[in-house]
Amino acid sequence: MSTETTRTVPVRGGFLDVRTRGGLGGTGPGGPGPAAPADTGAPTLVFLHYWGGSAATWDAVVERLPATRRTVRYDQRGWGAARELPGPHDLDALADDLAAVVTALGTRRYVLVGHSMGGKVAQLLAARRPSGLAGLVLVAPAPPEPPAHVTEEYRQALAHAYDSAQDVGTPLDHVLTAAPLPEPVRAGVVRDSLAAGTQARREWPLRGIARNVTDAARRIDVPVTVLAGERDQVEPPHVLRDHLLPYIPHARLDVVPGAGHLLPLEAPDAVAASLRVLTGERAEVGEVGA
């Protein structure tokens, strides 16, 4: 895996530490960074983590991509290294941050890769039809239409899912994943889930997950690939067929056999293979389910 560089990108109320690979330039608090090269060939991949995740959620996926692939990832507002950024922490604020990152880095052609909550953020930015956006990869995404099970009672319970390490561990082992994660990976997930400000931790379950963004989804006009875990209990394939595909009808849905909700951690080979196919590189036979 090639070396990543951390760029400091100004956003509302402070800065985001953005990890880049592949020679991306941009701006920081001290002014312009190195000039960004023209995005020739395959597009830059811009990764967005799930509620409770971090830039590190994508480690195993990025490691499986060609060393020359341009990538961008960061902790979203309110999480990890960005936990002190002020609110609001709603979906529009996260989409604004994403737009600021893409602009600051001079990314001329890019694909958004969003997991779960990050997938909903990606949908909102894509609906704005920004210049240079070449496609979306939605990984176990929150659908634009909230499913019926997202009730007030469900959301209130979810708001306490990250109150303690024990609260994180039970759903991690029995709901979010289809098979046990390696212990170092599991420990990292627990740390990430607890590394949030109170507002950010509660914003998604109390409001974001229930927000209907179907009008925005209908405006998406770039190619869309959706990856679903066969055994995902959070956003199972049938939920995405019923609550996402009707609003992004040109999207392709691929099902990853045997996987749960945390696809970047459970099935990084399949996620990386899908990204290589999207960017015109060959994937090994059988890496992505159909």
Automatic annotation (TrEMBL):
Residues 45-273 form the AB hydrolase-1 domain. Keywords: Hydrolase. InterPro entries: AB_hydrolase_1 (IPR000073), AB_hydrolase_fold (IPR029058), AB_hydrolase_sf (IPR050266). It comes from Streptantibioticus parmotrematis. The keyword Hydrolase applies. Residues 18-39 are annotated as: Disordered. Signal peptide: none annotated. It comes from the Bacteria. This is Alpha/beta hydrolase. One of its GO terms (molecular function) is hydrolase activity. Gene3D superfamilies: alpha/beta hydrolase.
